[in-house]
């Protein structure tokens, strides 16, 4: 509980020994009163919690538990100190007695309270709760409408993940694909997502059968006549999305929310051929959609406040953190992500080892580096996203040719088991020496190279930079300026 900040319910708290009894709400005061009287009249022993030792293992065994807990904490959150402090404090209580433990807790808590991590976590706590308050939307007194059925277009990685998230929260889902082969594959992905939960003990087989029964696969729009929301999750192709939204307007009921999972494309462009622009909204999930907690709700100037209220409600019910953002290329997340990936590709084409970049990023605390992430989302998505930025911000975009060149070798990322990394049957990634030739080709096409030693400085010195709150790729991404032809690169950042 301490290491994950995960609360427990009454029955579990009782079994753990955290509470003495669990009673019905209407019996709480009378039971507590009787308990106090029993103690006072010596019918029940009164043992102060501080001195209870029945749950503490022998010292040797306890030390092994602490050792294991520290290893797990360092593995899951290598850059955080407070989980280790929690373990140290508990160990002090076990080894030196409860008073010593309390003293250490008081001293260490004061140090943590003044840390930058504490300030950031407090900020996140309030920021996450602030996402449900949208001026001009949530203050209008609108109640969310009941969504009884959802349709999803596209059963790929994103579509199947979104379907999984919805059926896990008991929403009946219709999954539409273009042919039987793709439909079977999409349903198979949803089944695999659920079976993974069964293997991990997070779901019973009975619950699995009940959950998968909420999913229906179709090849046409016939069953769309009574859906309350449609989420389009196809490839990032503007003309195809425009045609789909024009079709949805014909087949779906007038109240149906028309949502797109696009990660970068302007929603006004997607809904250009429709008349119901007030129903069009972005519902951008993050991969894997049934796991990642963030949901970007993208509104245009014409999106109805009722639609946003409805989507905020759905987001909470499927256990996401929904954030309402404006409509522009890349929205909020990819707009911020853009310079990060640009800097990574620039560094590689200028001589830096891509695997060194990924290692630096993961050591900094991110779950994976930009190149491992590109493999995970797939090269198709990476190209489509990149094209949107090239078209909308040509003067700000570095046009790397690495991914297009790798696509010629039939590499598409993790799905083809070949991308920047090689993947075994268990999807475990390992560096691929062949990638060097693709980088060399891209480098020769760009026609410019900087001394790798200069750029390696940013990575080899990253640990010192991290201590000052600056990360080299972000610094470099923010401090690069091109002239009209990318011949001269000026690195300008006072902190570096």
From TrEMBL:
Pathway: Lipid metabolism; fatty acid beta-oxidation. Gene3D superfamilies: 1.10.1040.50, 2-enoyl-CoA Hydratase, Chain A, domain 1 (3.90.226.10), NAD(P)-binding Rossmann-like Domain (3.40.50.720). Keywords: Isomerase, Lyase, Multifunctional enzyme, NAD, Oxidoreductase. Residues 330-423 form the 3-hydroxyacyl-CoA dehydrogenase C-terminal domain. It catalyses: a 4-saturated-(3S)-3-hydroxyacyl-CoA = a (3E)-enoyl-CoA + H2O; a (3S)-3-hydroxyacyl-CoA = a (2E)-enoyl-CoA + H2O. GO terms for biological process: fatty acid metabolic process. One of its GO terms (molecular function) is isomerase activity. It comes from the Eukaryota. Residues 149-327 form the 3-hydroxyacyl-CoA dehydrogenase NAD binding domain. In the central section; belongs to the 3-hydroxyacyl-CoA dehydrogenase family. This is 3-hydroxyacyl-CoA dehydrogenase.
């Amino acid at each position: 509980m301490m290491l994950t900040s995960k609360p427990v319910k009454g029955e579990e708290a009782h079994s753990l020994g955290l509470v003495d009894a669990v009673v019905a709400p209407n019996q709480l005061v009378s039971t507590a009163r009787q308990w106090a009287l029993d103690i006072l009249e010596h019918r029940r022993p009164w043992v102060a919690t501080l001195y209870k030792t029945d749950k503490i293992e022998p010292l040797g065994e306890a030390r092994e538990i602490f050792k294991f807990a520290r290893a797990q904490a360092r593995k899951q959150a290598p850059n955080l100190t407070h989980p280790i402090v929690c373990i140290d404090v508990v160990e002090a209580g076990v080894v030196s007695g409860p008073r010593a433990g309390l003293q250490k807790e008081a001293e260490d808590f004061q140090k943590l309270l003044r840390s930058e991590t504490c300030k950031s976590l407090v900020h996140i706590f309030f920021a996450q709760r602030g996402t449900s308050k949208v001026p001009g939307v949530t203050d209008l007194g609108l109640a969310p409408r009941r969504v009884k059925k959802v349709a999803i277009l596209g059963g790929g990685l994103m579509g199947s993940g979104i379907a999984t998230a919805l059926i896990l929260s008991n929403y009946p889902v219709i999954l539409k694909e273009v042919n039987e082969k793709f439909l079977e594959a999409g349903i198979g992905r949803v089944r695999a997502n659920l079976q993974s939960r069964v293997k991990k003990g997070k779901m019973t087989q009975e619950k699995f059968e009940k959950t998968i029964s909420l999913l229906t696969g179709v090849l046409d729009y016939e069953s769309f006549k009574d859906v309350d929301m449609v989420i389009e999750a196809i490839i990032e192709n503007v003309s195809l999305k425009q045609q789909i939204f024009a079709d949805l307007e014909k087949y779906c009921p007038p109240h149906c929310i028309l949502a797109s999972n696009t990660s970068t494309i302007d929603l006004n462009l997607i809904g250009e051929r429709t008349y119901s622009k007030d129903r069009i909204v972005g519902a951008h999930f993050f991969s894997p959609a049934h796991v990642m907690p963030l949901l970007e709700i993208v509104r245009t100037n014409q999106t109805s406040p009722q639609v946003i209220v409805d989507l905020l409600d759905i987001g909470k019910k499927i256990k996401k953190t929904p954030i309402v953002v404006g409509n522009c290329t890349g929205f909020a997340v990819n707009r911020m992500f853009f310079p990060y990936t640009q800097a990574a590709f620039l560094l590689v084409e200028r001589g830096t080892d891509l695997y060194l970049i990924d290692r630096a990023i993961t050591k900094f605390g991110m779950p994976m580096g930009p190149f491992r992430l590109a493999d995970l989302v797939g090269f198709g998505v990476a190209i489509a996203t990149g094209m949107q930025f090239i078209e909308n911000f040509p003067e700000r975009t570095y046009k790397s040719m690495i991914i297009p060149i790798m696509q010629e070798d039939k590499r598409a990322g993790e799905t083809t088991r070949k991308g920047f990394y090689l993947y075994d049957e268990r999807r475990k990634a390992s560096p691929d020496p062949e990638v060097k030739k693709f980088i060399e080709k891209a480098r020769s096409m760009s026609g410019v190279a900087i001394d790798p030693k200069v750029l390696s400085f940013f990575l080899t010195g990253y640990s010192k930079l991290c201590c000052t709150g600056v990360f080299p790729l972000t610094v470099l991404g923010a401090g690069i300026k091109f002239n009209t032809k990318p011949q001269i690169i000026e690195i300008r950042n006072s902190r570096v």
